[in-house]
Amino acid sequence: MEQIDKQLSFKIRLLSLVSMILVVYVHAYTLDLNGFAGALTEHKNYNTFIQDFISHGIARVATPLFFTVSGFLFFIGFKPKAAVILQKLHKRIPSLLIPFLLWSAFGIGLYYVLQLFPSITPYFPNRIIRDMSSEQLLTTLILHPIPYQLWFLRDLMMLALVATAVWLLVKYLQENFLALLAIAWFADLDFGIFVSESLLFFSVGCYLKTNPVLLAKIKANYNFLPVLFAWVGLLVFKTELSFLGYENQVVLMLLHKLAIVIGFVATWRCINTVADKTRIINRKWLFSAVSPFFIYAFHEPLLTIIKKGLLIMLYSGTEITSLLVYLFAPIVVILASIVAGEVLRRTTPCLFQVITGNRDKPTTKQEHISPKQEPILVKTQV
């Protein structure tokens, strides 16, 4: 089995955790979203600016980062041979398919239980579980899960099926293939079975894995401040355009995606620098007690329920209430996810491993390393 540098493995873990926190804030909007123009509201104010800047700006790098990491890990040890391809697909069953079905079923069950209470039912106008036919339940389970963030797993499963074609195209077309995918992404085109964003960044992960020289360069420690300032500055500019009511969706889309590209680089450089210059990778709780995948799967529909509940209880018709719910509901959900995940890990470890796709096994003391240590090679689950 091919091996990767242990320190790189820890950086990927830290990157996944940071990205997962950002995903929660992507879903934290307390306002309707108006495409690339940000929050949908008649009047823009400090509330819409902050929510747009965070959820429609900073946090939007999370999904590309996830797909890149997934693509990189998928193509470790990959060869266009039947035995290798079948092995890779077989591993996707416990790591993707089973968690997808279990968490989707959990969402259906949770809604069904909540809808047993007449006072709560009106807050679920579009999905009354008890009124669904068998066909509708199956569609909800597989195609339109209640925990809507599961689309990421669904796309990954589809990408696994076309991974050989991706590998061949990346190997022989190199940057030309990525350029074509980037054009499709900037043009906001989709491919039916998965979105252009997922294919592009999954392919970027493949490209990084098949180009060890480039991988060595991105592992090098560069000054992250210039690209970080460029990213934040572009996000401020883009958010300000939306705040002023700028209506050209094409320009807003291009700025939005350019910011994602710059943010993609900035986030990695920040993570790389923090991991190399601190001892954060020795923090046992960070790698054994916190499960990025559990936060990902557990945070919705819990976040939506908590947001609705807080807005109902605290509503005063002011923007400050909306903003406070936006800022603090994700924190409550993240902490609840960490606690619930740790309880399950300790009380029902087998169940925890199944629902997290065997991603979050406890880390032993021997696995912790100092940034000053020489790289150690370890087997990595893909």
From TrEMBL:
Keywords: Acyltransferase, Cell membrane, Membrane, Transferase, Transmembrane, Transmembrane helix. The keyword Cell membrane applies. The keyword Acyltransferase applies. Coiled coil: none annotated. It comes from the Bacteria. Belongs to the acyltransferase 3 family. This is Acyltransferase. The lineage of its organism: Bacteria, Pseudomonadati, Bacteroidota, Cytophagia, Cytophagales.
